[in-house]
Write a structure and sequence with these properties.
Layout: H1 6-37, H2 41-52, H3 71-74, H4 77-85, H5 87-92, H6 96-105, H7 116-128
Amino acid sequence: MQTTSPYMRTGASRITKRIQIKTILALMIGAVSVSAVGVTTADGEAIFTQRCAACHSIGGGRSVGPDLKGVHAKRAQDWLIQITKSAQSLVDSGDAEAKKLLDEYKMIMPDQNLSDAEVKAVLDYIASKGS
């Protein structure tokens, strides 16, 4: 009868665990990249609730930041994506509208670490709430 040393079993067990962990991480990374592509309006609502609602309303009037009702009719989508991702960069570039908002609200919106698809989902959610 051949026996395996405890060290051999431990080493094999560690290798198996490492492979399992790497597989799980690879699957998680894959899931994140897939979900970033297929972002929905429902995701936009969740993002708005988590990241935007503390300072912005949709039809509820001015708050810390502007009311966003109808914003898609007032501004180009590319501009809205830029200001959402980095308002400071837009102000620094000399954008007149961004500077006007800074002058009016006396503070700059913090950068949002969101993909373009996620910002578009938030904009779709805002648009779904009515112009």
